[in-house]
């Protein structure tokens, strides 16, 4: 039979594994093979079959400070070397002969094969304290410590590698004690050697002390039973000071020191020769010797013990002097499969008919070093057998069942050989391998556990040190232990065996390894091996160049948007649109002049109407620029927000911050504004998460994110996408519709009643939602007063009854919120409505296509950003709510915990905020709609109920069948319930935790939070073990991609943003900016608000200009706006200002400090003047975001042999990538490296370099080998420099992990940005279409304005009524004026006309150059010029003449004193545009302060100048 199931004999006492019984029959007193040869029945010696691979672990052994593993010795395929089947690790006294590059004298931490000293495979091993014995063929070899003669070599010398012993020959069994050894020859003879103290060698009284240096035969006779007949032996066991033998007839003999009765003879006397032990019918199968005790296992598997009481779990006083059954295993009966004992502790693998899982591991005795698998500080001794669990084995990600095959132990550590078994596995194949695994635990010193330095460091909880520091640290960590058992890496598994696995299996295994951080060079190679080809450095650079070239072409086109088209280019661009706008303006002014309204040209009506102080109005253009800066560069607001950490949202400054920021980003219909706000949210989220507060406290009432998020979610632009699914009463899936039904009915059909008894007391539950008793009492009193028509005063009795009714209301509300599975509750159609709506909203509403609901994409991005920030910053998660959580795996629990902040802000910031906003003005219409719908629903439900129950015979008090009535208070009750539900969501989101609520409400809040967390987990990160895999792509944060695309699409748009702020908000916010411009020093997280040095920072300079100045002690100082001055005046009129924000910042400046780049922190496209100092000083346009990597993260800057300077980590990464290959071209790693330190890597590279150099020299190398050899040499040079500077490999691993993730993220960014070009091209097409339409419209308007044409309908109606038309008179005047008094430009233009009456187009620009001169006094009288430089004399001012001449859509201004040019400057098109917006009321200085002019009046002057002097 095949399989791993356990079977029993008829008496069910001797368990066997069916697959271990092939070719084995029961015969005589032991187990014999099919040839009749006697073999040991010990289950510790695993049976080998022809199907077992040679590398499979077969037996394990523990010494004093080392471990040994024997692999299979079965026949294998041709070409496989089975001679090297002994693996060792631990103390150098045993492992010095291993095949390793380990330095002499250093302990071996990694299991390595022992090659030296063996000519054939090893099939028997015994391990003592510091020496080993092995049988290879029929030859016995020994090595290790020989100071007591235990090696049998004839001397007391140490042997580093196995030495063969010429005699005795034909050895079949061996044993090793602490300081002595023994063996059994094929003829049944016994030999012993080593320390002879106490008669432990069994060589008689003549040799009871000193050393026996060579094997000497033991005389074993059976005089007590069978005369002087010589007994044949088949097994031997060595303790620390005694020995035990098993005869061919399954009898037991012992010799040595008899302390504590360990010899089992009934006394404590020594035995100098083997003496037969009376066991009374017990047939011995195995014997095991400890320090002061002995164990015997009979043929039935029963365990018998003798010796020291503390070592054998003896419950009665005194030591055990003869063999008795082991009391703990008597009832229930447990049979021994494998046992190991040493010193005063024991481990045993048992089975019994009651065992459910095949086998169990039991431990007892001393636990000084954790050798029993338990923490020694908690369990220094185990007085009764304790079942030690072995962590489940995973194969290809699936946990499999297993059998415990063998256990071994030493003085300070233990091991267990575990054999996995696959369910329903009928055959052993490559797709279903079952290679055994080894677990180890106990003392860590000397490397005896077989854990690498990195593994050991991680288990101990400290980071490994590099070079010799690491080894020294670990080797001196003798007091450290590893518990519970940990699985060893199967380093003995050949690489070719790994490559035979199916490719998918390899991928899954690699995927699991690369998920975690790098801990070794092999891990680093695997990460590089499986990395996406497009994410490789060279390929990524190529892709970036491709994408950047596309975007650079778009950028070049954007830079030409405002330019005059080249000659021969007849396409319609913005230049022609501006020309038509100028033409319309000219004709408009000429028409005003024609009808006698030119006197209004210099009116200052707007100035007289403004209530804001003139000083403030003159600085509004600076305020406008500040708003633009704060909007375009979120880092400023992010730094400002740090100053409000820990403050509640009702703090005055926090409220001002939230209000201003909400107004700055109010225009959410513009995509760029939305995603600039998202960039700000990401900065604020990272700032709050980095505070390292417990997860439940994130985004609470002290948060800056929560109030901003609530403001955003109640924005009118997001109303349709976010609010309507919640508030729409006509939608059956909406929350408000559900709430109306809950308010009106008990179960969706039965109307609620609110009746009072004769005493005026309410009689039943009325569907009122209230979070606390006082509010509930207030509502009930109001409704009672309404019914009774008089004021009601609640008595004490009434209040008590109301408390009982309130408990019923809370119970009803709890079922409305979340479906309960409690018995005795009749579920209605309203049960769990709120939780059902939350699932619907998260999975459906926020999942809708962004083209249909573009606002929801921003909300999804913020929720994803919160989750990602939590996962990135928190190593472990503190549970906030435990109610309703089932037992789950640790990874899934961590993911659920990571969703706590996202769930909290969803409940309070979306559901709670939107329901709360129903009281505000923007939601007035939907509020009326809700009231109307509630009335309609109640009317329908009441009518239907009365019709169904009309004629029903009702008894007294039959409440369910009373005549239903319309509730006159329904509308107020529905609105009150909505308000209460909003507060409930605030409590659930823990932002309303200051509300006094009952425990029942808080329990419901916790339940709904847990439910929301689960749903949020499914949509944000996917489910692990019950939650959908993979997450949802619609919840990915697309902020970076959209910001890049919107930077281009915003320039292909003529739309401008609008920001409205009151004068009070402007002044207070400016004061706040100045207050926090420098850190206060009280908060270590605070930074200066300015990103650059004050003299270079745009925000700092603007705030400096805006704030008033005052003179203190003769010095002018900046001071904030006074509360008693400007701020008081502003509060009296509360005037607001609309600031027009131009998102096309490349229109007027695109070079130098104004060239576009991407901020390294916020990742936002900005002018370089708004960047951090490290970017501000660079030059070069960035068309797409670059992958940022700080130079100080790239390792040491190394100078190579050719003089080139390179970063060390980049060189090592390229080298590892070359050695690893790629999974598309290589099934496994090309060349796998071992170790985790720079020392290990250097050793590997030197070895590879030697082999490669030899291949090149012999002519066997390939073309690429020469390049690889050069890379190896470069790597060696770099590592040498890193070691000189004390760099550690753990820093490189961290760099590699971060760099791979960064490249993966940047690859996805490039892919998305490339796809976003389609969006940009669509915007460009729409822009061109808009330009053409606007140009056509302006051309038509200009033509009609020029001729003052009127529709014939108006002309006919005027003639019928004999009404003179002013426009007809204006037409005549304008035609006459053009003929008699043409403008200078028009006169010159007419003179250039040819015979056909046409002028070449190229001449128009040279003709249409309006110009005019004014005396300075005239400009002063008009209010255009406000003043000249103080040093200009008054006599000069009288004679000054100012000349304005049109040039490049602006004006060249020249100021003359007679014929002398005093000053010349330009008024640019940008200046003219600003005069129409924020600089309308400001003072504008020109000519380096030579002249100051009023923006509004100057703009009017230039307009009239253009009309009077232009075409």
Tell me what the structure shows.
- The chain has 1511 residues and is an alpha+beta fold.
SSE diagram, text form:
Layout: E1 6-7, E2 16-17, E3 24-27, E4 30-33, E5 38-39, E6 57-62, E7 66-71, E8 86-90, H1 92-95, E9 108-113, E10 122-127, E11 131-136, E12 139-144, E13 159-165, E14 171-176, E15 180-185, E16 190-195, E17 211-218, H2 223-226, E18 233-238, E19 242-247, E20 252-256, E21 271-277, E22 284-289, E23 293-298, E24 303-307, E25 320-325, E26 335-342, E27 345-351, E28 360-366, E29 381-387, E30 393-395, E31 398-409, E32 413-421, E33 437-443, H3 453-460, H4 467-475, E34 481-487, H5 495-499, H6 503-515, H7 521-530, H8 537-559, H9 574-594, H10 605-609, H11 614-617, H12 620-632, H13 635-642, H14 652-664, H15 671-689, H16 705-713, H17 719-727, H18 735-744, H19 773-788, H20 796-817, H21 833-845, H22 854-873, H23 890-898, H24 900-916, H25 924-949, H26 970-988, H27 999-1020, H28 1039-1051, E35 1057-1062, H29 1063-1075, H30 1098-1106, E36 1109-1112, E37 1115-1118, H31 1126-1133, E38 1136-1141, E39 1156-1158, E40 1165-1167, H32 1173-1176, E41 1197-1199, E42 1205-1207, H33 1208-1220, H34 1238-1258, H35 1265-1284, H36 1289-1347, H37 1352-1361, H38 1366-1380, ...
Helix pairs in contact: 6-7, 7-33, 8-36, 9-36, 9-44, 12-30, 13-15, 14-16, 14-29, 15-22, 15-28, 16-24, 17-24, 18-25, 18-26, 20-27, 21-27, 22-24, 23-27, 24-26, 24-27, 25-26, 26-27, 28-36, 29-31, 33-35, 34-35
Query: What's the number of extended β-strand segments?
Result: 49
Low-confidence stretches: 1-50, 74-82, 425-432, 461-478, 499-505, 600-608, 821-827, 876-889, 953-961, 1023-1034
Query: Count of helical segments?
Result: 44
The percentage helix is 25-40%
Mean pLDDT: 80
